[in-house]
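Sample A.
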Amino acid sequence: MKNEDSVPVCQIVGHKNTGKTTLMRNLVEYYDRVKGFQVGALKHHGHGGEPDMVKGTDSHRHFQAGATISAVQGETIMQMAFNPKQTWDLETIVTFYQQFPLDLILVEGYKKAAYPKIVVIKDEEEMEWSKTLSNVIAVTSQNDLLLDQIQQQTFLLDEKANYLPQLADWIMENVGMER
């Protein structure tokens, strides 16, 4: 586990229904179960509105009453809701995450941020869009014909066993982590 000020960050970006969440889940699971890493995961709620909270719970009531931060601690899990009364940018959120003993932070979304990115695409329009993004370290797709047209490092999202170890190592190498 890292205890430094700078935890490596990698983004997973793409359009809606391209498989970003599945890829994020697979990477978190791999890093946790195979590599033994502590991973922070962040999803950008880019569809407007607020994330769902469990209504009727004590922590929700505290939050509704005006608490800036409200949490519930279980036996092994703590769930936290935070309302800073303003919108935080990704840099501020990453700084918050870096207060925890993490090895890696995976971010789903925030397409315009400058962190290293894995792009998930499903068609030629998205392939063209991916060229407009900064700091792309790899492009992934379930369509091998699309990947054949891309000059960057690519990963075919077929069976997890086929791509996941190589993609996980590629991310580690490109965000400055040791294997």
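Sample B.
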Amino acid sequence: MREYSDEVAQEIEDKVSSWADEFQKSEEYLGLSAGERGQSRFVTGVFADLMYGYHLERPEDWSTGSLWDCCLILLPEKVLAGPEFCEAVEPVLTAFFAFLGREGHIRNPTELTNKLKGIAGRMVEKSRKSENWGMAKTLFAQALEDGVDLEDDEEMQDFFDKLNEEM
């Protein structure tokens, strides 16, 4: 049985980052809109991170079942991003899978793409509905709504202190 490894996670992050650099020079990338290109590195990185972090799948092992879970459960539940991110996932990953397949990095780009295209609309819809969000995403979304700078540790601590007082 495989176990999670920080070293493997870092290897995957480095590999996908390198592939993203190559992808940005590809014909598949050029077929994306400017907004999709702007989201592409985040989309590919988050996808790879979730596929390994929750399913222990390296890119060469990505499966349609794990893609389904990642896109319909994990992304809506865990990723705090605007609608432009969710709407970019399908076109970006479709182009990325095509690129990876053409380069021989993955063996099943067509199967992954077909599954993704079949669930993309539901993924976007689920991401918009707060009842599908996990606790952390919900808390951080509330902090943003309250005007808290998520990068400011002191503001975040004040937000959580206030939240704890209200409980």
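B remarks: The two ends are 41 Å apart (CA to CA). The helical segments are 6-23, 27-30, 34-55, 64-78, 83-102, 109-128, 135-145, 153-166.
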